[in-house]
Amino acid sequence: MDEEFAGGMVEGRNAVIEAFRSGKTVDKLFVLASSQDGPIRTIVREAKKHDTIINYVEKERLDELSTTGKHQGVIAQVASYSYATVEDILVRAEEKGEPPFIILLDGIEDPHNLGAIIRTANLAGAHGVIVPKHRAVGLTATVAKTSAGALNYTPVAKVTNLVQTMDMLKEKGVWFVCADMNGQRMYDLDLKGPIGLVIGNEGEGVSRLVRENCDFTATIPMKGDIDSLNASVAAGVLAYEIVRQRSC
């Protein structure tokens, strides 16, 4: 079974439908592609109602994910932790009397990277992390473990559209900086005040629309022979430059 999914899977038709109806956050639904009977259609309807990502797969994939061997053609990946809202993150900053410091992740797919970034966010004093619903890992058991407990203290919000969320936050005075190799040196940027740090996908970086919606583009000076840092390391370096500037 995939390490990413350990501890957050619900198997079987009745169990999955109850997961939806009880209000649990279902990040992904895996459905047997050839199954179209009434109970499966009901589950798919619930998934669409909750904007859950639906993956139609072959029986071999379901067997691979299953721990019970009794999946009945459907498995749900349920978030190991509850998601916060963007408003929760802003309230947290307000309660602390600090300008918002938010980390936004554009398509982080590796649960170890997400867990490490949440850990860094907590230690750097960020008020929360925002992740997109699609093409990104959710709050799996592996994420929780890698965060080393930080997930208990750092709100993570999941949004449908990252650009729209950024626009909303801009109206509240937040400025955005993204990590990109073609940006300005991070030391030359003013990163004080309300700030959103955007970190991109492990392979492709920040997507074009998100990058174009940022106010600044920061590059991390590098002296080595390779041209990029791991996403969680880049997040840590930039987060602590923000900490340094906010402390001055």
Separate helix tally: 9
Largest sheet, strands/sense/barrel? 6 strands, parallel
| Elements, N to C (H/E) | EHEHEHEHEHEHEHEEHEH
Main-sheet strand order equals 7-6-5-9-8-10
Taking all Cα atoms into account, the compactness measure Rg is 19 Å
Helix content: 25-40%
What is the rounded distance between the termini? 48 Å
- How many β strands by DSSP? 10
Task: Give the rounded overall mean pLDDT.
Answer: 89
Which overall shape is indicated by the principal axes computed on the Cα atoms? elongated
Structural class computed from helices and strand pairing: alpha/beta
Beta-strand percentage range: 15-25%
Low-confidence stretches: 1-7
Description of the molecule:
- The protein has 248 residues and is of the alpha/beta class.
- Helices cover 36% and strands 23% of the residues.
- It is built from nine helices and ten strands.
- The chain has helices spanning 13-21, 38-49, 59-65, 86-96, 111-123, 141-146, 162-171, 208-212, 231-247, and strands spanning 9-11, 26-32, 53-57, 74-78, 101-106, 128-132, 156-159, 175-185, 195-200, 216-219.
- The strands form two sheets. Strands 7-6-5-9-8-10 form a six-stranded parallel β-sheet, sandwiched between helices. A four-stranded mixed β-sheet has the order 1-4-2-3.
- Helix 6 (141-146) links the parallel strand 6 and strand 7 (156-159).
- Helix 1 (13-21) runs parallel beside helix 2 and helix 5 (111-123) packs parallel to helix 9.
- The longest helix has 17 residues, at 231-247.
- It is elongated.
- It starts with 8 loop residues before the first strand and ends with a helix.
- Mean pLDDT is 89; it is low at 1-7.
